[in-house]
Amino acid sequence: MCCCEKPNINGEFGYKWQPTDKPTVRERYPPALRDGDMLLYDEPGRCGGIDSHSHHYRVVLGASRVMELLVCHGGGQESIPLRTKSTLLSAFADLDSTARYWALNAIYHAYWDGRKRGTEDSDTRWREAAAEKRIKVRKVRGSNAVRVWVAPKIVRQAT
After folding, report:
1. Residues facing residue 146 across a β-bridge
2. What is the pLDDT of residue 82?
3. Is the pTM of this model over 0.85?
């Protein structure tokens, strides 16, 4: 939780972690660019209503001409493909830095929440299938490969 007296962007003077701290400058920790990346937008962490000092976003056009959101945070660095390049480019261009940062923050957290829910749903499905002994494994004839799947639940109606 930051205690900045006014909205503050990493790299600017005024960052306070605790109310008793003297204002300082919180360093920027941008995600690293890869070979062939063309930097389109660089939005360092900030606060303003919520504390988001730990997330630094960059929008790049990758070597394969795919637009990506690069994120650096306390857990490391991530890359998220942004599929609608032309639409997003014009939308991002219309936004000021603060609005663009919070839009990127919303995209990142929506992606992360969706990924987490998908993993939880898949884990639950496989856990239930294991408990009900519905996981099937078959060797592929003429190969070292195996096929693994979850058999459907058998629903029996009461008579």
Report:
1. 139
2. 93
3. no
